[in-house]
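If it is no trouble, might I ask you for a protein's amino acid sequence along with its backbone structure tokens?
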Amino acid sequence: MSFPTLPTRLDGVELAIQTRAVTKRYAPDAVALDGLDLQVPAGAVYVLVGPNGAGKSTTLRVLLDLVRADRGTASVLGISTTAQPALVRAQIGYVPEVVDTAYGWLTVGGLLKHHAAFYHAWDWAYADALCKRLGLRMDERFRALSKGGARRVALVTALAHRPPVLLLDEPTDGLDPLARDDFGGLLVDHMADAPTTILWSTHHVHEAERMADHIGVLREGRLLLQAPVDEVRGGLRRYRAEVPDGWAGAPGLNGDVLVRARAGREITWTVWGDERHVAERLSASGATVRDAGRLSLEDAALALLRAGEAA
């Protein structure tokens, strides 16, 4: 089957984060990023979605210059990540997918002091307020914390210097359900006080849906789609239709169907395109459209990732 033409460029907007043709291989046959052109608008909450191994964590590590790309360039706030890596990192708050426990012998307070030494903008009053909100004790040993506790410390170290850019790699991993629910409110309050660009890599798309204004869907190191959330919600719908016996499909739509299923005389198609055009094509083919429903952001991402499986 052919694949629909999906938006992958954000033109005419100020970008806080940008990569150009970034390629990274860990081995000749292990491509993590394959010509990645990531564009994160200034002030956006950009959600980066993809399966394990898609290249999400590698993307964030390239932006921090913790991993060097084989080809291509990356910048944060217009600063080259390879020419001035320390300056770039000073602009970023980072929550890694796996929290480093190398300083496990320190107390929470000692670990925060260690981090504060690297940031002139560190705000101790704000750090204390975050610790209280997240239920952290300054005298507790870091290595004694649960996975969720270590994640909460990482959130404090990422936010306390009020950076203009946040890189969040599965930031709710290890948090209990209540803490996961509170996390979005914490970010909203933070952004209200300190305008921030957020690049949020997650498997839990529903957690980011209420805040997200841009989305990128990454598979095998390439962006399948990169667009404002409103454009995705407007361009992707799930159609339910009744079709006659012997129905041969809808000419002109095959290349726009991402996911298709059929049960007897009822089809369910997830299609990228103008709703009126799609409905007209289905009707002209003899199908009777019963419903054209919008998808949640999570369902939209899943449909895009499953597009290559459409029969």
